[in-house]
Amino acid sequence: MDSKGSETIPxxxxxxxxxxxxxxxVKIVIVGGFGVGKxxxxxxVSEIRPLTTEETxxxxxxxxxxxxxxxxxxxxTVAMDFGRxxxxxxxxxxxxxxxxxxxxxFLWNGLFEGALGAVVLVDTRRLEVSFDVMGRLEERGVxxxxxxxAFPDAPRHPVEELRTALDLAxxxxxxxxxARRRVSSKDVLMTLMRFLHSLAVSxxxx
Length: 206
Hints:
The chain is 26% helix and 21% strand.
């Protein structure tokens, strides 16, 4: 998804140092297949200038990488994206966006290490690329929510149809979002934090 339409934060981004009021920092990973909007989401919501590891896509990737959308996508993440957002004066989230191409999935285990939760970005035109992503999170025991990135030409489906298609448990939240918009991306993160809180209260989060 093109990030040119991102809703920008008024004024300059904050400095890299943490606010003095911060008392807790949480690691969150943003995962999904190739081209679903992970870099866009990190960039739109981060209160600091995000770190990206995007490289120009080349002919060498043909036949190796998922080339969906390659006619408009010219760069791809090869290691990770990194950003930060303060949810409250006391709580700060560190955001790690994973590379989408399968040949870079060996990096995921390191990025998942220490993560409290995850956002799985989904493109309804390619739901099948989400299965391996969610399977890896389940194997690692990382709780997650699913965010359906609203691409203009993507089909819309009722939430319960998506839940069935993705074989999701009834308690896992599914939300629609526009990863280009800061408010929408922040709403996704708030959904994840509420879900993690409910797991902690029920004793399911250890």
